[in-house]
């Protein structure tokens, strides 16, 4: 790296620090699970107001399997930046920017079941021409995370790939704009075989449509999925969250709108259920919300 690039990189990092932490004078002492926040009931509530959900534009909400790390993103207006906080001696740290994040858009984190591989999406330079979003990953090291690596083919294509999510057996679900879809973005799954991902498989018309589907959470056992979709006739706002359950024959039920308890005139997206299965997180507008995950069972078909 030459001196000019180093100076530019340092300037961008300092700018992000000032932007992300402006107005945060004294970070409170937070202890206990979920940053010490009082758990919600069956009505969605803002998660960690003034701490995680602020006047900035926050999205994503990923806890580590042990619940001692929390990852989220902030949209600065120009790019997405990945953030994290973790417990040290039982106390949550002030949110920090990932060392490798800030120059490009980095967003949509997901962890492997063992918590040692961090997947995310980025428009950083890759093997493709242009700046489309690809799936990247980092490996946990003794002092943090390794440098990002592009996941490559066949998961990534010359089009956008976003919002990967990993099941208990390693299968990856993701959204892609690759050729052959039904809308501008569809959902696919890629099975892990001998340590490598197979060609992503389209999830079909029960999930996908002409309108477009994006962010999706898939249960660890693949028994249900929650997906963001936009432009459908029954949306409450620009985009809503929908849910589908896997049937006994292994096919998916037609996705249904999660209704006005979850969806509003704002945009709802970035669905995630905590590793312990207790809470359902999602983004509404520019804040992160959470609700008791028991609400998910209320959508399960009676038959």
In short:
This protein has one helix at residues 3-21; strands at residues 45-46, 57-63, 69-75, 80-88, 91-92, 96-97, 106-111, 117-122, 134-141, 144-145, 149-150, 161-166, 172-176, 186-190, 192-193, 196-197, 201-202, 213-218, 224-230, 239-245, 256-257, 268-273, 279-284, 287-292. The protein is mostly beta strands. Strands 2, 3, 4, 5 and 6 form a five-stranded antiparallel beta sheet that branches.
Radius of gyration: 19 Å
E-strand count = 24
What structural class results from the helix and strand content?
mainly beta
Measured distance between first and last alpha carbons:
61 Å
**Main sheet summary:** 5 strands, antiparallel
Class in CATH?
A: Mainly Beta
Task: State the CATH architecture.
Answer: 6 Propeller
Q: How is the CATH topology named?
A: Neuraminidase
Whole-number total of structural domains: 1
Q: Give the averaged pLDDT, no decimals.
A: 92
Strand content is 35-45%
Question: What is the 3D form?
Answer: globular
State the low-pLDDT regions, or none. none
Total helical elements? 1
